[in-house]
Amino acid sequence: MNAHRTFVLALGVSCCILTAGSRSADPPVKQPLRPIPFFPGDPRAKDEPPFVKVMRGRPFWFGVFDRDGNFIRDPRSIPDYSGSGRPGGFSTTIARQTPVYEHRSGRLIRGTSVDKPYSVFVPEIGSTVTDIAKFDLKNPDRIVWNLVETVPAFWTEERKKQFPNGLPKGAEPPKAGTPSGFEFTLFRELAHDKKPPAVARVIGEVMEFGRLSDEGEFIPDPDLPLLPRSVVTHTHPPVYAANTFDFYYTLPRPKTRRMEERPEHEEVYEYRSGRLIKGTLHKTGNFVPELGSKVLDFKDYDPHGRRRVYNLPGVLRRVGAK
């Protein structure tokens, strides 16, 4: 077991004990198993989000999208490495260089679901972050991959005839660059085990452990469970690469080393496959893209600017620097 895994396990166990001890007088609370629907329009749905299957890394994961478009995996489900394991779950896996939108906190980001890496969303450089209220659900120009009700809405009788082999295929996204005078090295290339560092993803009331892919996507650790957010009490988590990366990477960076002094929000960039999305990282762990902002090529990033890239899966160094 490596040092990162040891720390994660120790953190989870010790914090759970502290949390339980502070509330020892409270009766135990059983988490209700809500009836999650298996497809859009399922009569069991009511006000619940549909149950979906999402690809993260090699396996497929089962869960739901929250109201901001974040995927929250189902703690009762195990990852599916076959792609066809358990029945049910609306599959969000799309490849074929398919033009799609991504929903983030009431915003839409234009991009492509690519073949390599398989089914990863790549934002379109130069496109504008738009308000989802302007999206025409009755006649969508493309699907929103993480808003499943847009899929059946897209498939009109006319489009079924127009695209008999599935969703339309677009052009391969162009390669992104690196800021002039800098070189970008992935964290996994710096690690002795060639793995990116362990991180904790905090979203709403949930925390889970995993690692970041080369594209900036969070990949859950299948061996570690989901935990309640209340366990985020460790005041001195490890910091990687000369204070450029935080263990609780989805939380605004504190001005000191004390966790309780984290600000309510922080203006940052989000890294996605060599693209940067301008926005705000909130104390809930949710990233909100800035309406009207343009998706940037990574090469246009100013490493000395006031906005950091909160999920950058590597480190920028000046060319020739040691």
Could you characterize what this model shows?
This protein has four helices and 21 strands. The protein is mainly β and 322 residues long. The strands form six sheets. Strands 16, 17, 18, 19 and 20 form a five-stranded mixed β-sheet that branches. Strand 1 and strand 2 form a beta hairpin. The longest helix has 20 residues, at 3-22.
Secondary structure elements and pairings:
Blueprint: H1 3-22, E1 52-55, E2 60-65, E3 71-73, E4 90-91, E5 98-104, E6 107-113, E7 121-123, E8 130-131, H2 150-154, H3 157-162, E9 182-186, H4 187-190, E10 199-203, E11 206-212, E12 218-220, E13 227-228, E14 239-240, E15 245-246, E16 265-272, E17 275-282, E18 287-289, E19 296-297, E20 308-309, E21 314-318
Parallel strand pairs: 1-4, 16-20
Antiparallel strand pairs: 1-2, 2-3, 5-6, 6-7, 6-8, 9-21, 10-11, 11-12, 11-13, 14-15, 16-17, 17-18, 17-19
**Number of extended strands:** 21
Percent of residues in helical segments? 10-25%
- In terms of DSSP E residues, the strand content is 25-35%
Biggest β-sheet strands, sense, barrel: 5 strands, mixed
Class from secondary-structure proportions: mainly beta
Order of helices and strands: HEEEEEEEEHHEHEEEEEEEEEEEE
Low-confidence stretches: 1-34, 238-244
Spatial extent as radius of gyration: 20 Å
Mean pLDDT: 81
The backbone outline, from C-alpha atoms, is globular
Keywords:
disordered N terminus; 4 helices; 27% strand; four-stranded mixed sheet; 322 residues; 11% helix; mainly beta
